[in-house]
Amino acid sequence: MNRVNRLIVGLRDAPLVGKLVRKGITVVSYTGRKSGRTFTTPVGYQRKGDTVDIQVMMPDSKTWWRNFNGEGGPLTLELDGAERTGHATSHRDDKGRVTVRVQL
Predict the structure, then answer these.
(1) Is the pLDDT score of 49 beyond 90?
(2) Tell me, what is one Gene Ontology molecular-function annotation carried by this entry (predicted)?
């Protein structure tokens, strides 16, 4: 995890601001399709019921979301203080924006 991501995770866990930060930022964990390694990264999200949408910022400079192309795959998120596992799929719209949708 790079320095910026460590800072964001630290803010999520901070006593004073953590509760506010956790409302819009979660930590996801997944296994890379090619490498088989487990990765963890903080992401912004929106949740409606059992659906979590992650808007990937600057998707052309990131690769993690590509693990969920096609039929997608499993992804674990920290939500409401607990780990939840769901099935994630990624989609790029006609403007180049990428959303990873997780069904819990």
Answers:
(1) yes
(2) oxidoreductase activity
